[in-house]
Specification:
The chain is α+β, with helices and mostly antiparallel strands. It contains 8 helices and 12 strands. The chain has 3 domains: 93 residues, Immunoglobulins (Immunoglobulin-like, Sandwich), CATH 2.60.40.10; 63 residues; 83 residues, Cytochrome Bc1 Complex, Chain D, domain 2 (Orthogonal Bundle). Strand 7 and strand 8 form a beta hairpin. The chain is elongated and about 100 Å long.
Length: 284
């Protein structure tokens, strides 16, 4: 009797595991990042948009994807929630990352989707246009000119000559120029270096290969970041030898080249297409 119960429990567990495996096999999706900002600055909010397609084709609606980013300084996670837009299967979220560095992050929406590290740069540094001594000199010039103008006007009221009136007008003009110069010198100016690329820690083509969701269906030896994430549904693209012209047409609209294809149109820009072509056709 004991053996029968053991057999029943074993079969039950096996069937449950098989059912879970089948459900998992049928529950995959491709996540494609849409437009990303040119750069990400610490402490400044920015918006990301992405699409989720079940089995790479069907827009997945009704989700509230969770975005988790890990602070490179404290190693603590920061979480955000994305909202669905009016376009089915498309989502947006506003992120704010407080510190500089390379933030690892992923989007959990119909499965977990790790993405290339986000490189966050420091905010612009502000500095005065002129040294403090120069600005102080302009201020003293302005004050002196204003006082001189007042004295010249008093003198003019006692003896109204054109010479004294001209002196008052000249001192007033000097005061105005000094004030304008002081205001200009005191206003801060941003001393920002060239913006850092959003995915600076990865080659642009490899980062796009992951961010656009290509890694979900294809493998590529040049993308070590997402090793093991590919479902290998499509061909391995590590040694792609096709024509760049053909690849350009394919990436622009796969269905126009092969109507029965399961690959979706990812809405790639011309620059993104060229970056992917360079990555896929680069010699090993």
């Amino acid at each position: 009797m004991k053996k029968n119960w053991t057999l029943i429990v074993t079969l039950t567990v096996t069937l449950l595991l098989l059912a879970a495996g089948v459900a998992r096999a049928g529950g995959w999706a491709v996540l494609t990042l849409e437009e990303m900002p040119d750069h990400v600055t610490a402490g400044e909010p920015f918006v990301i948009g992405f699409a989720i397609r079940q089995h790479g084709k069907t827009p997945t609606t009704g989700l509230q994807p969770q975005i988790t980013a890990v602070d490179p300084q404290s190693n603590k996670p920061v979480k955000f929630t994305a909202q669905e837009t009016a376009d089915p299967g498309h989502y947006t979220a506003t992120l704010l990352l407080p510190h500089t560095g390379d933030w690892s992050w992923e989007i959990d929406g119909f499965g977990s989707h790790p993405l290339p590290p986000l490189t966050v740069q420091a905010p612009p540094v502000t500095a005065p246009r002129l040294p403090a001594n120069a600005a102080l000199g302009l201020l003293l010039l302005t004050v002196t000119a204003v006082v001189g103008t007042a004295v010249a006007l008093i003198a003019w009221t006692r003896q109204r000559t054109n010479r004294r009136l001209g002196l008052a007008a000249g001192l007033f003009a000097v005061g105005l120029m000094g004030l304008a110069g002081w205001l200009w010198a005191s206003s801060p100016v941003s001393a920002q270096s060239e913006p850092t690329a959003v995915f600076a820690s990865m080659p642009p083509g490899a980062a796009l290969f992951v961010a656009k969701g290509c890694i979900t269906c294809h493998q590529h030896s040049g993308v070590s970041f997402s090793a093991g994430l590919s479902l290998s549904i499509g061909p391995d693209l590590s040694r792609y030898k096709g024509s760049p012209d053909y690849l350009r047409l394919w990436l622009h609209d796969p269905a126009s080249v092969k109507p029965e294809t399961v690959m979706p149109n990812l809405g790639l820009s011309s620059d993104e297409i060229e970056t992917l072509i360079q990555f896929l056709t680069a010699p090993e």
